[in-house]
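Q: What structure does this chain adopt?
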Amino acid sequence: MSIFQCEECGCAENTSCGWYHCCNMQDITPKEFLGKALCSACAPTKYASGESNKEFNNTWHKQFSRTFLPHGKFKTNNQGNIEHIESGLVGSKAYEKYGSDTEYDKVI
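A:
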């Protein structure tokens, strides 16, 4: 299961559950969302055409627990796992150290 960090809220998300694979598809992604890998709760609710996106309605999909991570501190490594950029902690070890049930403040 490949995991990425949502660029909006910072949570860990499965690439097949969120707006990861579509984020650069100009024909379906609204301009304001282009290039942004987003979780199911932050994904656009409408396609570029204006048609409603029935899969995403600003709610978490509840396929697994929502775990928030510090914004911009994680990457998806070559094995598809979430990895802390500075420490190199991967997957459950990274969740244990940095994971939270509540969203971290976004650093701008």
